[in-house]
Amino acid sequence: MQPLAVPGGPIGAIYGTDTVASGVRSLLTPLVQITLGTWLLVALYAIAHDQYIVRLSEEHFTVGHAPVPGVEDPALQAAALAFGASILPGFAFGLALAVVCCEGPWSAVSVRWALRAVGVSLVVTEGASLLVGASTYTTGFSPYSERWVAPSASPEAMAAQSIQLTAYVVGALSAGAAIVWAAVARWIAIRCQGSSGPPGPSDPAVPRSSPPPPAAIPGPEAR
Q: Which of 130, 128, 136, 131 is nearest to 158 (CA)?
């Protein structure tokens, strides 16, 4: 006799699809969603960022970094290094932002709003990095000391190193600004909610859900 096919694979067959879906939803709390979502955005940004850096200056990765075992292609090496470098700052940024957005008994900042703040910080980081890199390439002068950017290097190498250093500095500052922005937005939403009712659907903060009131039991005269 063939077993009954249950959606959700073996786990769904054992526990039931609704139980599995409920368990997944309980694990993907807003805190987890913001943390993982932030790291994913940072990782994708870092990989895409390093793909044009390696084409601008291949030696930035083949000479300036330790080789990745088993990886010979410079583009793959840049992607691997970017992925590894994104783990600690991405999770730290995401966890700090998630705590500011979600923790506490008052209204929480929505996941979508928080991830938009991450996106803005990444756009600001890349814009500043490209401006510094373009200036370094055209003028031959880097705003960083010779300890970090050698003046004797090629214009491409100087621009690549200046872009990377700017990404580190501006990335840290913009991440901190996003966290502060979230805290201020949450505080404003709480004040507005307290003075004029609950926030609308476009507001950054969403009220904590509360269980619905119990249904009234009809009396004998209503039966």
A: 136
